[in-house]
Amino acid sequence: MHLVLVDSFSGWFELDLLPDMRSVTVIAKLKRHFAVYGIPQMLMTDYAQQFVYSEFTDFACAWDFKHIRSSPHYPQSNGLAERVVRSAKHLLEKGHREHSDIQAALLHLHNIPHAGLPSPAQLLLSRNTRTFLPELKDRMTPSVCRGIKAVLTRRSKESKAYYDRNAHTLPPLQQGQIIRMQTALGFDKLAVVQGPASRPNSYVVTSQGRQYTRNRRLLLHVQKPAPAEGAEDDYRPLPIAIPTHIIRTISLRRDTIKHNRTRYNQ
């Protein structure tokens, strides 16, 4: 188990091996990083249990930073973290496969320019750090990188515009509306909207006495009266539409079913 901590401005990330996933263990690791780099104004995490417990809430209050949790079951809401997690997994897999030093690989990764920008070390520390490779002395001299925030803002707007070309804005939900919440089986859980959540584009909903926080894209508005408490029929999954020609072949031989499905897919 590992903890990945990334700086949203520079892309510099830290990778820590965790003996367990308790809140106190994660907090101890974060305190060590905050002592080195300073306390962030905002910390965004996923919805893992160690970030939900009261110990972490007390830690955020005592160390004076805003804690935001991404929407459960919707990793796109914290895209930077997901990209860095993929990089960290690749780093760990390569280190395990080649029996190489993970920390040495991380050291070199911090000094590699990416996507036309200076290296994470240059952005965070205003200079490259010393590695095993030869380095020019002027690269070790501190020099503040200017205009980076404007570049990042422009790229963010371009990415959003590209995404919005095929994306559809979903209408907002109102308190008391009936929705179906997406689970691993589809939109199969009826729930009632209680109101907007603290995180962007998310809502607090209740279903069968339990409260959930979900991204808007995981909630489907339905025209149906509010279910009575404990009415199990209201919580059954939506029926699945199956093409009629497939239904007719259910009683036939397996090879016939396979032939018809292939023809349908074509």
From TrEMBL:
Coiled coil: none annotated. Residues 1-150 form the Integrase catalytic domain. GO terms for molecular function: nucleic acid binding. GO terms for biological process: DNA integration. It comes from the Eukaryota. This is Integrase catalytic domain-containing protein. It comes from Cyprinus carpio.
